[in-house]
Write a structure and sequence with these properties.
Blueprint (H helix, E strand, L loop, with lengths): L5 H7 L24 E2 L2 E2 L17 E4 L3 H12 L19 E4 L21 H10 L13 H29 L27 H15 L4 H17 L14 H21 L26 H23 L9 H19 L11 H30 L15 H4 L7 H8 L6 H21 L27 H24 L17 H24 L9 H13 L7
Antiparallel strand pairs: 1-2, 3-4
Protein name: Transcription factor domain-containing protein
Organism: Penicillium argentinense
Length: 572
């Protein structure tokens, strides 16, 4: 018997969302079934600000007038999620962005740096500007208008391409790697964004920033990998990975430069499903982790989370793609061992729940990194068990991260009984056990996304957590974790609703908390509501990040799936 609700959920999700590569031709995403879409995002015809601005109005974009204001904006919008620089020396002040009217959509190919009131001096300030220009000005009444997206996209690419050229120049200016002294500043006629950061680190940090830009904005995972691999090799060429343990041998700026490079390298590996240039536990690495001045320093856990997530991806691939003949005979033991490691890291990550972080800005950054670490660890366990729980049944039409799509497999594609049995016998957990593990993990992930801070400015209090449609919630480089959890929540919601509709609640007892026949229906309804709230948390977070076109469609997709499941609602 077909289970209810699945068809409606499948039929209403958008085929235009997910990670989209802006370097492909726009014709690849032409209208389908009359839908008007721009890279997976609503066009002015259906956006909330459609009636407030005419199509003839020129778009406006965010700009800055000096290096100090760029640096200040970095600490407001980027530093909470990408702490590339040490703690700020000067007090933060309210964002001092200006705005300019950009040319119409048809003229965005003719942009010049002379059109801007100020042109950044270093590769790092150029790369940061590529991200900052994507944030709509606070008074932009049509931030999702098609021409506004086009203008932000064009200026961001102008900054990014200029940053690449500047990186090459700066690396050439450093001379042979063997002659580079990381502890002596080299005067190139400009100054660093931070007095403790030698300009020798600028091209490395710029490459890390561009790697994130290529993913969250351009949706180009291959180019992201090229940028971060260049950052890793450049850092290793100047021995940034072999610094000593004392603060004099490895200043905080150098520590952050190396380990943020490694952090994004593992992010790239998890997206590209290929190992990094150098493993985090390589014996050649002696540079200590960054320090945030808190009792629970986050970076050790953060890197363990990334490496464990990568191990889960590798294990899942081994389970899903290998034949019985090629599968290692001890794969069940390997799965159990990896699961035990993940559980131990979950316990370690939960320590932050019993710790009070101070109001100091860097302490808040440390707490945020703990949240991101917990997201990655719990996602690693979801990834390990997701296949056993749901057999990778496709839910979304488009391809997301490593989730199977309906478009690539077809609506009628289901695994053969022999194929399923072959994998069931090698997995040391039952379907019920893995489903319950996924349930608990994805609810933690949704809670962590809800607790992620919005950008904070002086006067608003530390990390003001209020929705802001025009301001992104995060730098969404971990959006795939939200999609993994959203897939899990929706699949479980479908199962619980089907059990309720067919009066077979006994088949979902493993998901309920101490169920009894007298209360099983209300227990199932309570779980369905909990699953709903989880999807809402994830959708609200990603929806506020739709300005990043590479991953922004994910928020739109989650909302579409949510509205399909709850047609009485109008939005998340």
């Amino acid at each position: 018997m077909p289970e209810p609700y699945l068809d409606s959920t499948m039929g209403l999700v958008s085929p235009f969302a997910g990670v989209h590569n802006l370097d492909l031709s726009p014709e690849a995403f032409s209208d389908v079934s009359g839908s008007r879409q721009l890279w997976g995002l609503p066009t002015p015809s259906d956006g909330p600000f459609a009636s407030s601005i005419s199509d003839t109005d020129l778009p406006i974009i965010r700009v800055y007038r000096n290096e100090e204001d760029i640096t200040n904006a970095y600490y407001i919008y980027i530093h909470p999620y990408l702490p590339l620089l040490p703690a700020a020396i000067s007090p933060q002040y309210e964002d001092q962005s200006s705005f300019i009217q950009a040319p119409g959509e048809s003229n965005t190919t003719e942009l010049k740096k002379t059109d801007l009131p100020y042109w950044p001096e270093s590769s790092l300030s150029l790369a940061l500007s590529a991200l900052l220009v994507l944030i709509p000005p606070s008074h932009d009444q049509a931030p999702t208008k098609g021409s506004t997206f086009a203008a932000r996209r064009a200026y961001a690419q102008l900054f990014a391409q200029s940053a690449l050229s500047k990186i090459e120049q700066e690396i050439d200016d450093l001379g042979p790697p063997s002659s580079v002294n990381l502890f002596v500043s080299t005067d190139r006629g400009n100054i660093s964004l931070h007095p403790d950061v030698p300009i020798q680190l600028d091209p490395i940090l710029a490459l890390v920033t561009l790697a994130v830009y290529e993913y969250v904005q351009r949706g180009n995972v291959s180019r992201m990998r090229a940028r971060i691999n260049q950052a890793v090799t450049t850092a290793m060429d100047i021995s940034l990975h072999t610094l000593g343990v004392s603060s004099s041998e490895s200043p905080e700026a150098h520590r952050r430069a190396w380990w943020m490079t490694m952090f994004i390298a593992y992010l790239s590996s998890n997206l590209h499903l290929a190992p990094p240039v150098i493993a985090a536990n390589d014996s050649r690495i002696t540079t200590p982790f960054p320090q945030f001045g808190v009792h629970l320093e986050p970076f050790d856990l953060l890197m363990k989370a990334q490496t464990t997530l990568f191990a889960s991806h590798q294990m899942a691939q081994k389970i899903e793609k290998s034949s019985h003949a090629s599968r290692p005979p001890n794969i069940g033991d390997e799965i159990s061992s990896l699961d035990a490691l993940t559980v131990s890291l979950m316990t370690e990550s939960d320590r932050c729940l019993r710790t009070t972080f101070g109001s100091d800005y860097e302490e808040q950054i440390a707490e945020n990194l703990w949240r991101i670490g917990r997201i990655n660890i719990y996602t690693a366990r979801i990834r390990l068990h997701r296949f056993r729980a749901f057999m990778d049944i496709p839910l979304f039409l488009d391809k997301y991260c490593d989730l199977t799509s309906i478009n690539s497999h077809g609506l009628s594609s289901t695994p053969s009984p022999a194929w399923v049995t072959e994998r069931e016998t090698s997995f040391p957990f039952t379907e019920e056990e893995s489903s319950n593990i996924c349930l608990k993990a994805c609810l933690v992930v949704s809670t962590m996304f809800r607790n992620l801070p919005y950008p904070s400015q002086p006067g608003l209090g530390p990390f003001e957590r209020r929705p802001a449609y025009k301001t992104p919630h995060t730098i969404p480089y971990f959006a795939c974790s939200a999609m993994q959890s959203c897939y899990t929540l929706l699949m479980l919601l479908h199962k619980v609703r089907a059990c309720l509709a067919t009066d077979r609640l006994g088949t979902c007892y493993h998901l309920l908390n101490k169920p009894e026949p007298a209360t099983e229906a209300s227990d199932a309804e309570r779980l369905a509501e909990e699953l709903r709230r989880g999807v809402e948390c994830l959708g609200a977070s990603l929806k506020s990040d739709i300005i990043f076109e590479g991953v922004g469609g994910m928020g739109h997709e989650i909302e579409s799936a949510y509205l399909a499941a709850f047609p009485e609602c109008h939005e998340i």
